[in-house]
Every structure is written in C-alpha cells, then in structure tokens.
Amino acid sequence: MLSCSVCSLQSEGLERAVAAFRSVSGDEGVSLGEAVREQHGRDESVHRCRPPDVVVFPRCVEEVSALAKICHEHQLPIIPFGTGTGLEGGVGALKGGVCFSLRNMDQVLDLHQEDFDVTVEPGVTRKALNSYLRDTGLWFPVDPGADASLCGMASTSASGTNAVRYGTMRENVLNLEVVLADGTIIHTAGRGRRPRKTSAGYNLTNLFVGSEGTLGILTKATLRLYGIPESMVSAVCSFPSVQAAVDSTVQVLQAGVPIARIEFLDDVMIGACNSFNSLSYPVTPTLFLEFHGSSKSLEEQVSITEEITRDNGGSDFAWAEDEETRAKLWKARHDAWYASLALRPGCKAYSTDVCVPLSRLPQIIVETKEDLIRNNLTGPIAGHVGDGNFHCIMVLDPNDPDEVQRVHEFTERLARRALAMDGTCTGEHGVGLGKRALLREELGPMAMEVMQGLKATLDPKNLMNPGKVL
Amino acid sequence: MLSCSVCSLQSEGLERAVAAFRSVSGDEGVSLGEAVREQHGRDESVHRCRPPDVVVFPRCVEEVSALAKICHEHQLPIIPFGTGTGLEGGVGALKGGVCFSLRNMDQVLDLHQEDFDVTVEPGVTRKALNSYLRDTGLWFPVDPGADASLCGMASTSASGTNAVRYGTMRENVLNLEVVLADGTIIHTAGRGRRPRKTSAGYNLTNLFVGSEGTLGILTKATLRLYGIPESMVSAVCSFPSVQAAVDSTVQVLQAGVPIARIEFLDDVMIGACNSFNSLSYPVTPTLFLEFHGSSKSLEEQVSITEEITRDNGGSDFAWAEDEETRAKLWKARHDAWYASLALRPGCKAYSTDVCVPLSRLPQIIVETKEDLIRNNLTGPIAGHVGDGNFHCIMVLDPNDPDEVQRVHEFTERLARRALAMDGTCTGEHGVGLGKRALLREELGPMAMEVMQGLKATLDPKNLMNPGKVL
C-alpha cells in the first residue's frame, strides 16, 4: 500500500486512484509527494492533514475538463486547490481522491483598462494581479491578508480590510468559467461576457462564488477593477472602550465618510503588535483607518473622522500620508497573525470568524473577551469593524488536548453568540470542514435542504470536494 | 365558461381553478375581475394581456404558504404580482393559474438604524419605504424609475440611475423570506439574519434575486440602507458627440469621482424632454449628473468633472445645488418615458434594455441610431451610462402590424449587437417573456442546462411563473 511521505498516513484509495489515473491519463502531471507537501506546507488551518491520493497539475481548462471526466467515470473525489491559504480545512481530502492543483494556470488574460475589468486564470494570486496592473492606474482591492489565488478567494467568498468600501468577492466577480463534476465547461454569465451589471437569468456567478469547490472547479474569473486613488492617508486612534471604538465606526459610516479601511484591534492584539513590531501604541481598543481619494477630499474625511473619534473619547489620533509611515502601520496590522503567534512561541494559531450587525459588536466583543479570560485562552481580537466582522486569533498548544478542546468549545460558543445576535458563523473564511454543524443552525433545515438539492443537481455523485460546507 | 371582464378573453382553466379555490380555501381573497383590472391597468409592457384565472390577496406569509400548497396540490400555476411595473411581461399568466397579489402585505418591519438595514413585506414600494425613512437620515437608493415594490425589484434584479454608486438589487439585499412552490417557507440567509456580509453556505439570496418569480414567492426582503448625503449637486452638460459624452464618463470614473448618477440622453431624447417639459437644452448628446457628499467634497467632484467634460468638448455645463432646480432637472429625466410618448400621441411605448462594457458604448449607440433611422423608427435613447446600460424608448402604433414587426426585429438586432460586444441582452429589466431566446444565445446551452436543473430542483412541477426566463 502507498503511504503519504510527509505525515505517514496510509490511504486506502491511494493505489486504486493512482492506478486509475496512470491507466487512463498516463503519468504526466500525476504526483503524490508534491501534493502532500503542498498541503502540509501551505494549509494554514489547524485541521488535521487529509492528503489526497493523487495530485494533478492541469495547464488549461481542457485538461481540467478531461481530468474531471476521468474522475467522474471512476467516481474519484475532486479537490480543487489554489494556494492552500484557507482557514477552515477546505482543501482536505476527507475521502481521498484527486487534488486539482491549479497553480500552473497562472496567466492574466484580457485586461480591459477602459472597462475596469480583467480575466484571470486560477493560479493568479491577488498580489500577482496587482503587480501586473502596476502601470495601469488600476487595482483589485479585495485583500484577505494572505496572498491567496483570486479563484480561491472567489470560492470562499473572501473579503478583508477593504470590503467596507470596495465590497467582497461577491460584488467583484463578473463572470466565472467553471468545470462541473462531469467535465462540462460553463461560463456563468456566458462566454466572454463582462457587462458591469446584468439581469439575464439566474445569478450563476454568485452561486459558484462561495461554494468552496463543492459545485465545480473555477478555471477563470472576470473581475472588476478600480482606479488607484490619487492619495491615501492612514490613521490610528486609541479608545477608552470597545463601545467607543464601535460607536465611532457607526458614526463615521453614518456621516457618509467613504472610508476604505476601518480595522479594530483589542488591547491584547495591540500589545502583541507592539511587542512584535517594536511599536508603542497605547494598549487599549484601537482603530486603524485608511482613507482613499483626492488630497482635498482626504483632508475633509480625516477631519470629520477625527472629530467623531474625539467626541467618543478617542485619543492619540495620529495620521500619516507618507508611504513609509503608512506601510509601517499596515504591516503591523497584517502581521497580526505572527504577532499573535509570538505571544506563545511554539504554538499554532487558528483564526475564528464571525460577523454581526454593527450595533451588536460591542456586546459580542465584551462577552467574548470575558469568555477568553474565563477559559484561560489566548485570543487577541482583530476585525473589519465596518462590516461587523471580527476574528479571535486563537493561539494554542496543539499537543495539549485539553486546550485544543477548550478552543474548540470556545469557537462554537462564539459562533452561537453571533447567531443569537442575528449574525453569521462566518463572515469571510467560509464553512469548509469546521462549521458544517453551525451552518445548519444558522440557516435552518429548510434552507439547508434547498442547498443540498442544488448540490445534488450539480454534482449528483458527490465528487466535488465531498464533506465540505453541507 | 367564465370570461375576463376586461379583455373578453376566455380562459380554459378559469372555472376549474376558481372552483378548486372555493372548495378548499373558501371565497375569501379570491377575485377574478380585480386581478384582471390590476394587470390591465398596471402592466406597462407591450406584451399581450394574459390574465390569470384567479387572484388571491394573502395578508401574511402563512397565507401565502397555505395558498401555495393548494396550488401545488392542484397543479395550478402561481404568478407572484407586486405592482405590475415590469417591462418584459413577467406577470402574464401564460398558462392561466393563480396570481398572488402581494399588495396587502405592505408593512415596513424591523428598521435597524445603527445597522443600516430594514426588512419589508412585498407590498412596500421604494417610495413608500423612503417616506417611512424620512426622519431617520437614511434612504434606500435603488431607483428604477417606476414606484415598484421592493420585492418586485429584487425579483427582476432592478437597478436604475443610482446604481453606478450604490449598486443594484444584487448588492443591496441581505436576506429574503421565500415561499417555494410546495409552500415551504425558507430564509435565504437564515431567519432574521442580517450581517453585512457572510460566507456561510451557498448564496441563496442572490439565486432568488433576479429569478423573476420562477423559483419562489418573495415574502420579505432585508435591505441595506445608506446615510442621506449631506449635500447633493446636479449638473447638465452637452457634448458634440456620443463618443465625447462616453469618454467623459470613463474619465470621471477613472478619476475616482464617486458620482451618484451619470445619465446619458441622446439628441432625440433631449428634444423630446425639451418639448414635454418646456426646457431649452441644446439638442445634442447630453449627460445629466448628480454628486452626493459633503459640501466641500462636492465642490471638488464638480470641478474635476467640469474639467473632464470641457477637455472632451462638453459645453453649457450648468450645475444646480438648490432643491428646486435639481428637482426640475431630474423630473425631466424621469419623465423621459412620457416625453417619448408625447412625440407620437396615441402610440404605446416599449423600453429596450441592453448593457455593454463602457468602451463599447459609443459604437453601439451610433450603430443603433443608424438602425433606427434606416428603419424609420422612433426610439429616443436614455441610459445609465456609468454602468454601460441604456434603453431605446420605442414609440410605436400597436395597430400597425408592420411597425410592430419592425420594432420587434430592431430590438432583437440591438440585443445581438450587445451580445457581440461582450454585453448582455438585459441590464436591469429582466428576461420575462420577451428575451428567452436571447438569453439562450447569451449564456450558451450548458449554462442554460444548469439553470434548468436549478429550476427543476426548486420547482419540479413547473408551477412558479411558468414560461418565463427559461
């Protein structure tokens, strides 16, 4: 029996799958060790490694389709793989099968500058796209932190720090090329179509956005682009309480300030950032902000925001226009994951993800902090507060089963707290493996039945990323 | 046999359906004449009147569900009806059946000011909602022109003049309560949930938005709201050519001006508006614009826009801050339908609807104007040019079969021209009855098959608004 060279797991279906692939598709593109290393090295979740039996590296949609047809015929599970930066175990091969690594399909296609759109293959990451766009005056703003592939971001309905202004993947995908479980190739908005809006038929694009590889393999995405703002200003402000920080956020939005980023960090997170990046922000609830626009409009945005924060007891309002200071500030925010890990060297991290209506944020954050203390857990909080979305970055010793269990119970309590406040168990990470039971609580049995019906229609043999979402 | 009292059509299923309803649900809420009058009086499309057999006026979701169950059991078609302002024949009862008029469910529910959301029943129109919100500092910006019901707008994925800044219904519906064909009640994002974003499971909300009553009956919509801007400024500018007007639009968007409305009117439309409203705009391609923001930011927005239009040969740039002048300007734009009709008294109008990438607008508009002249047709053009979306308001004599035929052929050519330019046959009116063949051309047979599969899953007896979309 073949076994995984990295984690020494033995897989029942391994020989059968590899043999099936070799017999029908030749050796080319089939790799085991590489796949497993890829998954081990890149999957940032704490979910247990579940390696596939085989990995294929198709180079074009026709190859993806041909390989899917083979899987379909042999009833082999298909697990689409982008960069493996997902957080909810979405790329684990629970039933073995074939991992479709799409990294070799990495071309940026069909940039239309005047139309503010571009089409990318699934191996293109957001940073690669923005590098490509560098001289065009355009950019793609959705930023989940990791340098994820854009089709991977579409598949989990990702968002991140800029969503309050530019929306999530849901609002920014115009069209998708998708290979279905049986190898059929479809274009969700019609081949090559890219109007900025449409009322033509069912919204298939947004059925596949967020479907986490369970309905098909995304092989192309047409995305909306935005003009790079003339100027950007960043700011930091400290608050006496979570309530004061959230009140400021609501008032900034009410005032119509077109804020580009408004990020909350709790006292523990700020402390971690200070230590990790040798900074000296006051260790209190803090907002990191960013404004995009013309120089003149920025002055006004900053001044309105400063006034609002001051009225809410905010202090140490510091703003920065120069690239270097701004970069330093956002590096601190983007390093939150590593700053959290540094709180307990040798530990692993898992980032929770809930989203509630804005007005419920103070209560849920306060209750969650009490919960963390009560259960002796390390979980600094950072959040995209303009959307009501936040994370606890849980730092835990994976070899301490008691702590692992307490983290697990804590995250379930947190999700249920969000559900009790009209919110969702995941604002941007997706359901994957970890939140299937919570999804059922969130939607109720009838909506789940509808989702299961859609899944059964598009993937009657349950081959597409089985065991995820539903 | 019963017959329709307004158009004298006789309906085969009439007696059977009415009898079925009377036997199982009593007389209450069952009406024929009223339904037919409602459809005759309100359906603004040129599609032939297709009255239902029965109309019911449910008062709550439980009644909708109970009535749907009766229809399901007796295999009676279900046609959801909001205000009948749709333009593609979406409420015609092609196979007879039961019209669900939702006008008695007209409550605004659960306004959450701090969270910028509200839930409405399906009888609430956009104007009624904005009246309700008057003292809150909030508004719902999606504006298709007609005072449509908000659930009707959701069902056709409506948009209109403000979409360039605030998005369409797709981006502004957070949750839907839906009654399926068999009477099952679901909440697309889970009961009562209203986070501003979510990655939890398939995006059912946007599967029902735009489904035009073919997948279920919308009985509640939770909508995003926006702060009313501190100030608004409107402007008008005349251009030497369509190209110059569109170039200005692209450059305004590239410059990051957060423009709220940017509406194109061709020379014929401007002429019609001048006559109808006693105005004296130059009879050339024209942009009507609106800016939302703080007084200070407006100054800058207007000044950048004015410079861009001047560089493109725009002239007579006139802007208005006072409510009265602004209202006059937008009344002219909103009266475009009636101004067009007044070009040929006694005629009827049909508004086409296509959407293309911005850069293709000049070519498609120029070719379309040539087509109109060549075929001796009256079709002033107005468009939401920031989205690449425009309409020809076709004014025709319904009793001239040759002209009716020429209009039909023209609209098909226009749609195919949009398809050839990577666009869509409908940007905001929907497919309804009139564009089913075009939809097939737009999406291709495979995507159509997926849509048919979804329809068969959710409505296996094909009772929901049969004969529409697919």
If you had to describe this structure to a student in words, what would you say it looks like?
The structure is a homodimer of 470-residue chains. Chain A is α+β, with helices and mostly antiparallel strands and 470 residues long. Chain A has four domains: 14-101, Uridine Diphospho-n-acetylenolpyruvylglucosamine Reductase, domain 2, CATH 3.30.43.10; 108-227, Uridine Diphospho-n-acetylenolpyruvylglucosamine Reductase, domain 3; 231-323, 2-Layer Sandwich (Alpha-Beta Plaits); 339-420, Alpha-Beta Plaits. Chain A is built from 16 helices and 19 strands. Chain A has helices at 14-25, 33-42, 61-74, 126-132, 150-156, 163-166, 169-172, 204-208, 242-254, 267-277, 295-311, 323-334, 336-341, 361-374, 401-420, 436-458; strands at 30-31, 54-56, 78-81, 98-101, 108-112, 117-120, 138-139, 173-179, 185-187, 217-224, 226-227, 231-238, 261-265, 286-293, 315-320, 348-351, 354-355, 381-384, 389-396. In chain A, strands 12, 13, 14, 15, 16, 17, 18 and 19 form an eight-stranded antiparallel β-sheet that branches. In chain A, strand 8 and strand 9 (185-187) form a beta hairpin. In chain A, helix 9 crosses helix 11 (295-311) and helix 14 runs antiparallel to helix 15 (401-420). Chains A and B meet through strand 9, helix 8, helix 9, helix 11 and helix 16 of A and strand 9, helix 8, strand 11, helix 9 and helix 11 of B. Chains A, B: Its main location: mitochondrion. Chains A, B: One of its GO terms (biological process) is lactate catabolic process. Chains A, B: InterPro entries: FAD-bd_oxidored_4_C, FAD-bd_PCMH, FAD-bd_PCMH-like_sf, FAD-bd_PCMH_sub2, FAD-linked_Oxase-like_C, Oxid_FAD_bind_N, Vanillyl_alc_oxidase_C-sub2.
